[in-house]
Amino acid sequence: MTWVARMLAGPGLWAVLFCAVYGLHGLGCAWDWPARQTPLGPLHPLGMIALWLAGLAVHGALIVLNGPGGEGTQAGLIRAGNWIGAVASAVTLFPVIAASTCG
C-alpha cells in the first residue's frame, strides 16, 4: 500500500505549494510587500518566486528519488503522480507569480 502514498506524493506536494504560494501572496499584500524594495526588485514577487522555485526543486528531487517501485501498473502510476504534481505546480502557480496584484 506504500505505492499509493508514493503515487500521491506529487499531487500532495502541489497542494501544499499551492496553499503556501497563495498564503504568501495574501500576507505580502496585507503587509505591503510590493512597496518594499530589495536589490533584486520588490519583495512580494521575489518571495513568491523563491518559494515557487524551491517547490519545483522539491518536485525534481521527488521525481529522482521517488523512482518507480513495484511492477507494471504501480510503477507507471507512481511515475505519473510525480510528474502530474510537478507540471501542475509549474503551470498553475506561474500566473500567480507573473501577474501578482494586490488590490
Overview of this protein structure:
The protein is mostly helical and 103 residues long. The chain has one domain. The chain has three helices and two strands, in the order αββαα. A two-stranded antiparallel ribbon has the order 1-2. α2 (43-65) packs antiparallel against α3. The longest helix has 29 residues, at 2-30. It starts with a helix and ends in a 5-residue tail after the last helix. The relative contact order is 0.21. The model has no long low-confidence stretch (mean pLDDT 91). The chain crosses the membrane at residues 42-65, 77-98. Keywords: Membrane, Transmembrane, Transmembrane helix.
Brief summary of the model shown:
This protein is mostly helical.
Mind sketching the topology for me?
Blueprint (H helix, E strand, L loop, with lengths): L1 H29 L6 E2 L2 E2 H23 L7 H26 L5
Antiparallel strand pairs: 1-2
Helix pairs in contact: 1-2, 1-3, 2-3
Keywords: Membrane, Transmembrane, Transmembrane helix
The Rg value, from CA coordinates, equals: 16 Å
Largest sheet: 2 strands, antiparallel
Order of helices and strands: HEEHH
Count of discrete structural domains = 1
In terms of structural class, how would the helical and strand content be classed?
mainly alpha
Number of helices: 3
Helix % is over 70%
- Tell me the strand percentage band: under 5%
Strand order of the largest sheet: 1-2
Total strands: 2
Query: Mean pLDDT, as a whole number?
Result: 91
What global shape is seen? elongated
- Which segments are poorly predicted (pLDDT under 50) over 5 or more consecutive residues? none
Distance between the termini: 46 Å
Transmembrane segments: 42-65, 77-98
Keywords: Membrane, Transmembrane, Transmembrane helix
